[in-house]
Amino acid sequence: xxxxxxxxxxxxxxxxxxxxxxxxxxxxxxxxxxxxxxxxxxxxxxxxxxxxxxxxxxxxxxxxxxxxxxxxxxxxxxxxxxxxxxxxxxxxxxxxxxxxxxxxxxxxxxxxxxxxxxxxxxxxxxxxxxxxxxxxxxxxxxxxxxxxxx
Length: 150
Description:
single chain, alpha/beta, 5-stranded parallel sheet, 40% helix, 14% strand
């Protein structure tokens, strides 16, 4: 895999406003130079597992983190999370659930399925930007991830 194909962050978000705010916050903090955007769960799974007819990905160069919304069209976030954590090629990729759901059942289910973090999206832009910046800083710069081979 050449350097131009490396994906540091897979952002799975269907809400255009939340997508724009997340990208703006990451750019402002100079985080994640290489971001792949999936606008629904099916697109995320296709990217990760080659289900769109493309060859299966190699996993040695990313994504280093997945930011995953729960309420997604086509395939919901819980199913995407379950598939990521059930596959040996992707199970060690950190998945941060970034969602508007405060429902305890969602929080509990995400952790049961292997989520690494569960963040409720703040309502105001500054809070949202701060949360995304802090998430990106921790998971992309501070966290030591295992080397993925596959």
